[in-house]
Amino acid sequence: MISLGIEGTAHTIGIGIVEDKNKKCNVLSNVSKMYKPATGGIHPREAANHHAFFLPKILKEAIKSARIEIDDIDVLGFSIGPGLGPCLRTVATASRAMALKYKKPIIGVNHCIAHLEIGRALTGAKDPVLLYASGGNTQVIAFLDRKYRIFGETLDIGIGNCLDKFGREIGISFPAGPEIEKLAEKGRKYIHLPYSVKGMDVAFSGILTAAIHLLKKESKEDISHSLQETCFSMLAEVTERAMAHTDKGEVLLGGGVAANKRLQAIIKKMAEERGAKFYVPSKKYLVDNGAMIAWTALLMYKSGYRMKIDETKIRQNFRTDEVEIKWRS
Amino acid sequence: MEKLIKKGAEAEIYLSEWLGKEVIIKRRIRKGYRIKELDNAIREHRTKREALLMMAARGAGVSVPIIYDINLYKKEIVMQYIDGMRVKDFIDKIDEENQKKICKKIGKSIAAMHENGIIHGDITTSNMIIGDGTLYFIDFGLGMKSEENEDRGVDMHLLMEAFNAVHKNKKLFEWVFEEYEKNFDEGKEVRKKINEIISRGRYMRRVT
Asked: Cβ of A195 and B38 within 8 Å?
């Protein structure tokens, strides 16, 4: 079975084509284009215009490099939420048009679950706790009782958003994470920042404010180092707690911020100390991508999910634990 | 001589001797994934917080082990060893009348804690000990100070899950809650919160 997936929840428009071969995920193509604002953060309408402009181009490219025809596609998936409204609507409209024109079944996919499923498919993790760390989302997710349940999450802004906002203060453009990572490597001194773990949840906005205040007297290298160490340790702690809680012996990373080598090292060390396995997919499957939507749509379709066109309304606040996971037991 | 009796995700519990007394030492272990400065600060802060919560609970009239010493260098609390039995281990083996007596004690104690802004954070029957007829609460490691019904609800929900997962008599939690409501004005609001928490489907835990 061949599935085409369109991702477009935020800054990235991506199209992936996958097939299941012997129950394994085989990525035939995965093309994407990222919107980068000239200044400031993501402007939702600008991002949506960007997606509308590039979608036809990357669609052609994805089909061409997968060496298939439109007719070969069995199911069409798209990111139905959560995400920025204008971006979601653009992608949903394109998907509906394609589904009607080519008479393909359409499936709206939860973006967060797609991150988890592509990670599972490509790393071999079977029943992991997922630390999903991206710009807008920061969640600790695990499978329990037919749902992907959120065991911990941010109470305010996503970790990537925190890094981006700090980056903006020191003149780094979006996305700021990779530059901050480089600065942090040069940092030597740890400066105490608020450590905000509340039960199984985390919060970043207070730390961000504290870090910005420090700019008056400390170097940006030292602050970047301290910011990363504090935030990532918090993530490791809540992830570990979820693992202890659910008694799971695997941890999987997902989301753009998970490409950060320091975060990877921290989570890996945490896993080692408790005798658990650590998994991380390659960067192109950590960041938003079409293949993850395609793969999850395929899993959903095969487990019996069907959607009528009028059921494909976008869901900006779509929760991870709202989807019944019929393809797992 | 120290003897390790329990190893948790955050701390290790030792049975030891201190000035001729049999004591429990709770020591927070170093996490290798955190840099040293941060790790020390977190462990120190939590050791302090736990000791303060235990003292606050005592102030609220709830029995907790006596704290003999706090060592912030070693991140440990030295406390009284309670010679008794965990509620978890015997409550299924006694008759209903005695079960009810204990449940009432539990409900009254939690009401006192919540009334005084103390959230235990891990109320399970494993963390309750009966020694010499007194009900003791132990392990305030996940506790916090809060006057929010949300936090109280999470606390009670945890106890409910613990009772339902481990104990046969399904009336136990209801007895606890009746007494809790009798002794705490916000009890009814907390009950509503529990239903809300259940509907969110989080905080589901494996209780052993």
From this structure: yes
Q: What is the CATH number of domain A127-284?
A: 3.30.420.40
> A43, A85 in Cβ contact below 8 A?
no
Comparing A150-154, A221-225, A270-274, A289-293, the range with the smallest average pLDDT is: A150-154
Listed by start position, the domains of chain A span 2-116+287-322, 127-284
Domains of chain B: 3-80 (3.30.200.20), 85-200 (1.10.510.10)
Best A139, A144, A148 member to test B by mutation, with max B CBs in 10 Å, is A144
H or E stretch covering A108: strand A106-110
Q: Is residue B42 within 8 Å of residue A195, measured between CB atoms? A: yes
pLDDT at A101 over 90: yes
Same CATH topology for A2-116+287-322 and A127-284: the answer is yes
Q: Does a cis peptide bond (omega within 30 degrees of 0) precede residue A82?
A: yes
One of B39, B69, B95, B122 is an active-site residue; which one? B122
Task: Please name the CATH architecture into which domain A2-116+287-322 falls.
Answer: 2-Layer Sandwich (3.30)
Q: How far is CA A246 from the centre of its chain?
A: 22
**A190 vs B37: CB contact, 8 Å cut-off?**
yes
CA A88 to chain centre: 15
Q: What is the pLDDT of residues B86-132, one digit of tens each?
A: 999 999 999 999 999 999 999 999 999 999 999 998 898 989 999 99
Residue of A nearest to B207 (CA): A245
**Structure tokens given for A10:** 């935020």
Q: How far is A106 from chain B (nearest CA, A)?
A: 29
Quick check: B196 pLDDT over 80? yes
Distance CA B152, CA B156 (A): 6
Complex ipTM? 0.84
Nearest CB neighbour to A233, from listed B33, B142, B204: B33
The yes-or-no answer on residue B139 being catalytic is no
